[in-house]
Every structure is written in structure tokens, then in C-alpha cells.
Amino acid sequence: MKNKAYYSSLAILGCLFFVFGLVTWVNSILVPYFKVACDLQSEVQAYLAQFAFYIAYLVMTIPASLLLNRTGYKKGAMIGLWILGLGALLFIPAALRREYNLFLVALFTMGTALAILQTVANPFVTIIGPIESAAKRISIVGICNKFAGILSPLVFSALVIAPQKERMAAIQSGELVGPTREAALGELLHGVIAPYAVLGGFLLLFGLLFYKSSIRDINPAENAPLRDDGRKSILAYPYLVLGVVALFCHLGTQALSVNTIIGLAEVAGFTSTAVFPSLTLACTLAGYLLGVILIPRYISQQNMLKVVTSVILVLALLVPLLPPRIAVWCLVLMGIPNSVVYAGIWPLAIHNLGKWTNLGSAMMVMALCGSAIFPLVYAGIADATGSLHTAYWLLFPAAAYMVFYAFKGHQFAYWKR
Contact, 164 vs 192, CB < 8 A? Predict the structure, then answer.
């Protein structure tokens, strides 16, 4: 009976992480879709979609942690899933009204939900079984997340873009004008209604099922560490502050490698561009599995972090220097080293925080806003220079900082002694 409860809990958490990947990585294909369907005139306008989604992590993580202190983690997860479902359902009026700003509200709502869900997810994975096998469980749910990330752009493309490929081409070529063009744009946006209606309904139901499941609840107040080394502020831990910046850079570069690759692939002349985000995430999944095999049996987590950040630095230099057709594959390959960075930075930044652990964890989750800010800065550079390819120089300083943190930054225990 205990084994049955354990595996059913693990399956439910696997579904939760699958949902994370499903709603997060579809953003890579929403940007070029919205640019056509909402008749956007600049890269910055298009990348506001990602900005609205990921900036919620910065704005809403602290409120989310306060909510969880009141509700507990299990009820908080249900609320998070319901908010996520509401965000998906907001796509329906946004499509019917052809209102890009309402799409942005929907995406911000979904990002808010994930700020809640990201805060509760890993603790649940830890408590459902023995602590010594927690890493194995994290690997399993991580694979569910990345597998969903591979599927979501392909599914969106098959359900929404493929049936309307000719209409999109006619709009982009300028073949349609006046009322005919307006009608075509409306029909194009109507393609998101059915998929997001189904997704919203599923999320509302899944939230209730999660709350009624056998997974035991977590009370944040009862699980807060009591250790206190006398520091007066969370900012007095430099390895945490520097780690938040490192995670911000990592998530920003990862977002660039996945969510902007379609634009570069189009510049390079590839015909089937929708496949590239999935290829990048497939490399991420491969790197994740490689990490599970190698760490810590053959290489420590810390040394692996040094290796992968160095590889990312080399690839970040090659992307803007090489021709676009080769640079695309450098972005794809970046998925392999990127897979290990998150797990490498987190323990270095969060250790020995004592009573500040929960707040430190919230700050780390807030670093997910790097996925909002980096694509928007990238779009601004692309608009200013007229080159999507040149804008990838943004990768280099971010990768250099990650190398600094992996080799040196995590060692700073105090700002000044």
C-alpha cells in the first residue's frame, strides 16, 4: 500500500512538472505567431509576450510565498493550477477581440501561477519518499518537464500553425489587403481558442485532483530552519546575492537559446523552423540524463558546473561570430551544458542560510525573470542594429559571469572581513 501511494504521488508530481514544461516552452513559438497574427511592427513588441510571462516571477514570487504561508503548500498548489487555468482561458476573449494586450494579461496570469507552483514543487518531490532518493525523484520529474518542453512547440505548431500556414504566408507576403487581410488575421487568432480552452479546463480539474490526492501537505512555518549566524539581512550573504545574478544570467541565456532560435533559423533560410526549440530542449534532456549518470559518481556537481559554464562561454562567442546557418546549431547544442547549470548554482547559493532559507529560495525563483528581460533586451538590440544575428552578443557577458560564479563567486562567504 505504501509503495502504491508513493508511485501515485510521484506520478501526480510528474504531471505537475509536465504542465510546467507544457505552458512555459510553448512561448518559443508564440512570439513569431503573435508577430503575424497580431500584426506587430517590431521585435520588441513581439517579445513582450515572453516578458509578460516571465516578469511575473520577479513581481509575484514574494506575494506567492506569503500566500503559501497562509494556505499551506497543497492548497497553494491547487490555487496555482486554477490561476494557470484562468490564464489559459483568457486566451479565448483575447483571440475573439484580437487584443494583444489581453494576451499579455493572460501570459502574466500564467506566469503568476507558475511563481506559486515553482515554489511548492521541489519540496513536494523531497517529502514523498526517503531523502536519500530525492535526487532520483528530481531527475524523474525533471525529465517530465523537458519532455513536455520538447512536445509543446511541436503540438502548438501542428494544431494552430500548420492548418493556417497558407493564410500566414499570404499575410506576411502582403498579398491580402484591407478587409480581407483583417478577416484573415481574425481567423488566424481563432486557432488558439480550442487548444487553450481544453488546456484551461484540464488545469482546473487537475488542481482539484492534486488537492484531493494522497500527497501530504507541507506547512512552511514548521519546516523553516532555525539556524542563525547573526547576520541582520538576507543581503549579507554574498554567495546568495551573486548566485541570484548567476541564475538570472543562466535563465536569460537559456531563454535566448530556445525562444529566439526560430527567428535566427528563418534568417538562416531553414524551412522547418518550428522544430528548433524542440531540438534545443531535446539536447537539454540529453544533458540532463548525462548529468544523472555522471554526477556525483564520476564528477562532482561543483566541477561539472565549471565545465558546463565554460562550454556555454565558448558557444556564446561562436553564435554571433559564425554564419547564421551554423550559429543555429550552436544554440541547439547550448541545450546540453545549460541542463546542468540550474542544479549546479542552486545548492551553492542556498546553503547555510538558516532562518533566511525560505526568503533565499524565493529570491532564487525571482531570478526566473531573466527569461523575461534577456529576450526583450535581445529584441531591442535586434531592432537597433537591424540584425537578429548580431543581437546574440548579449550571450557573451552573461556566460562570462556564470563562469566567474562557478569558479570564484560562490566562495564569497562575506562581503568584507
Answer: no
- What is the structure's pLDDT at 286? 87
Instruction: Single out the residue of 183, 385, 134, 151 nearest to residue 278, CA to CA.
Output: 151
Residue spans of the chain under pLDDT 70: 1-2, 126, 131-136, 138-139, 218-229, 417
How many other CB atoms are found less than 10 A from the CB of residue 12? 18
CA distance 180 to 187: 11
First to last CA, the chain: 55
CA 205 to chain centre: 23
CATH architecture of residue range(s) 1-222: Up-down Bundle (1.20)
**pLDDT at residue 1, as a whole number:** 41
CA distance 79 to 346: 26
Q: From CA 285, how far away is CA 291, in angstroms rounded?
A: 10
Q: How far is CA 238 from the centre of its chain?
A: 25
| Residue position matching grid coordinates 538576507 | 234
pLDDT value of position 229: 67
pLDDT at residue 71, as a whole number: 83
The fold for domain 224-417 equals Growth Hormone; Chain: A; (1.20.1250)
Q: What is the DSSP string of 163-228?
A: GGHHHHHHHHHT---HHHHHHHHHHHHGGGHHHHHHHHHHHHHHHHHHHHSSPPP--TTTT-----
**Cell numbers representing residue 178 in the block:** 484591407
Residues 360/237, Cβ–Cβ less than 8 Å: yes
Burial of 55 (0-12, 13-18, 19+ CB in 10 A): buried
Cβ-count burial 57-94 (b if 16+ within 10 Å, e if not): bbbbbeebbebbeebbbbbbbbbbbbbbbbbbbbbbeb
Distance CA 43, CA 115 (A): 26
Side chain identity at residue 104, one-letter code: L
Confidence at residue 311, expressed as pLDDT on a 0 to 100 scale: 97
Q: Which residues of the chain form CATH 1.20.1250.20?
A: 1-222, 224-417
